[in-house]
Amino acid sequence: MAHIELRDVAKRYGNVEVLRNIDLEIQDGEFIVLVGPSGCGKSTLLRMVAGLEPISSGDFLIDGERMNDVRPRDRDIAMVFQSYALYPHMDVARNMGFSMEIRKVPVAARKSKVAQAAETLGLTNLTDRLPKALSGGQRQRVAMGRAIIRDPQAFLFDEPLSNLDAALRVEMRLEIARLHQSLSATMIYVTHDQVEALTLADRIVVLNGGDIQQVGSPLELYERPANKFVAQFIGSPTMNVVPVAGTKTGVTAGNGTEILLPDQPLVSQAKELGVRPEHIDVVDNGTGDLSAVADVVEHLGSDTNIYVNVEGIGSMMVRKHGNIPVKSGEQLGLRIQTENAHLFAKDGTALRRVA
Amino acid sequence: MSAVKKRHPTFVVGKYAALAFYLIFALFPLYWLLKIAITPDALIYSEGTRLFPSEVTLLNFTTVVFQTDFLAYFRNSLVVSLGAAFFTTLFAAGAGYAFSRFVFKGKRIIIALMLVTQMFPLLMIIAPIYKIVAELGLLNSLTSLIVVYTAFNIPFATFLMQSFFDGIPKDLEDAAMMDGCSRFQALRKVVFPLTLPGLGATLGFVFTAAWSELLFALMLISKNDAMTFPVGLLTFVSKFSVDWGQMMAAGVLALIPSCLFFIFIQRYLVQGLTSGAVKG
Ligand SMILES: Nc1ncnc2c1ncn2[C@@H]1O[C@H](COP(=O)(O)OP(=O)(O)OP(=O)(O)O)[C@@H](O)[C@H]1O
Ligand SMILES: [Mg+2]
């Protein structure tokens, strides 16, 4: 268990800056998820915490102690790699017990700990196999076992589930959630997967281009994104963002349609309006804020996705719960749930409503 | 399914015929070596082109082993080849690892220089090498051969080792370091066992190269008791005759260590040792 702090941390390769101004405080036992597009520096940040990558500038602290130059082995942090990185020449038991082997833990103690971890992860029958004789999911479990057996201060996960198929991913996700509950250890988790991020995280850190965009709980990021990037990155399907002109009382879209937005004092600065697909209601043709034509309709059973062409705006997406009897080509009215609408200024920052 | 997979019979026959032809072509000289070695001296010329001699003898072997300096040559060759293989592999492994894993100043220049050394015809540098070795007082010593062979084989062996290290995922070392290893421990406990095929290949390559090297051995060694086997073989050619039978018997015996060496290392040459390390 550990309290981890990053103060104005940056990472440079030569004169290329891949991470800058990283300020982050992670509480003891917190589950932090790093998300962001490919190449934004998630792995690099994780590897700096692990000690595998030197920190170019700034301070890295564990429990208040500066650890910038401490070797990985002395940080007491375990890491699960995306590639699993199992030692191919060692059987499962030795893979899991390797850290104890290095620390010269007596064989008997090692054996019982390995057996215990294997039990927890359902690997008991596989302990004498080599990694090449395991399935992807089993390898993943061994990699987890290698980490939990050490009982470290913190766990790092770099996209640990991305090589698994969908069903196995759900299963392992639950297992990680359980693991976090039972160990109550600090965890930092990198993922591309929205669902993983939203379900596992206490707080999510959204990175883009080497900068932290926003840090917050899943609900905070969903309800109050700090900018257009976060708004579109979090939430699935993606938020609709359309160009508008702000007036005193609302916004006007391209063809002059006005949408009234009460309680938004900064509305006159708005350049874009963001509405999540689930925050648009389908109403009778001729009523509502916008009129549209249904383009493609996807019936998913639990939900209906309607891709619409909105007059004067262009294509948007609407998602409604349940089965909505809309046909392709049908004329619709759309009503925007204004209490859930987002406004963005010219530079993409969100314009916050009062209260 | 099976109908599609089944090749036309002529194709199969053709394939095996081609393989057989290649094998015969490659192995025939070896067969001839063995044949002459077991042919009695008297029959060598009279039965010159017969595929199998009418009489067989082991006399040539016993003569070579007990009445010539063959065993001394053999021992010298063994010392030189093992020494060169050991030192070359040691240095090449270190250099190859550095090239594979570290970023450092002058890396490109060093690689370029190593390539350049491979471009010179050996004849060009024989004289300077001779001079250097003579000045160091190392003429007629096995040490000189070990040093020279090691120096000449290091560049290629380094590239060979580098490619083996490149094939070992860096994640494995990172994982080992997270598990509590120092870099050196990670190297010893994780990378080294996985590099055994590479080490085996490099050892084998240098060993065989040194085992059959003639040019430098001829130049740097003139005393009988420091001669390596290829030079020693030439002593069977006297002013007036060539002792074919004994020469071939010596040749057959000289093949043995090479074969043994490859049988010994071949299990390390088997690829696929790293499979299962990464991905699903
Ligand atoms: N050794 C290096 N030298 C120079 N640039 C590097 C080096 N390693 C990484 N980078 C750069 O740093 C940036 C961040 O890389 P990183 O691997 O952290 O991305 P990521 O967010 O993990 O991406 P992904 O989601 O694809 O794994 C990338 O733009 C990459 O090109
Ligand atoms: Mg990454």
TrEMBL record, chain A:
Pfam families: ABC_tran (PF00005), TOBE_2 (PF08402). Keywords: ATP-binding, Nucleotide-binding, Transport. SMART domains: AAA (SM00382). GO terms for molecular function: ATP binding. Coiled coil: none annotated. InterPro entries: AAA+_ATPase, ABC_transporter-like_ATP-bd, ABC_transporter-like_CS, ABC_transpr_MalK-like, ABC_transpr_MalK/UgpC-like, Mo/tungstate-bd_C_term_dom, NA-bd_OB-fold, P-loop_NTPase. SUPFAM superfamilies: MOP-like, P-loop containing nucleoside triphosphate hydrolases. Residues 4-234 form the ABC transporter domain. Belongs to the ABC transporter superfamily. This is Sn-glycerol-3-phosphate ABC transporter ATP-binding protein UgpC. It comes from Ruegeria haliotis. The gene is ugpC.
Automatic annotation (TrEMBL), chain B:
Residues 74-265 form the ABC transmembrane type-1 domain. It is found in: Cell membrane. The chain crosses the membrane at residues 12-34, 78-99, 111-130, 142-165, 186-211, 244-265. The keyword Transmembrane applies. It comes from the Bacteria. Keywords: Cell membrane, Membrane, Transmembrane, Transmembrane helix, Transport. InterPro entries: BP-dep_ABC_trans_perm (IPR050901), MetI-like (IPR000515), MetI-like_sf (IPR035906). Gene3D superfamilies: MetI-like. It holds the Pfam family BPD_transp_1. The keyword Transport applies. Its main location: membrane. It is a multi-pass membrane protein. This is Carbohydrate ABC transporter permease. Belongs to the binding-protein-dependent transport system permease family.
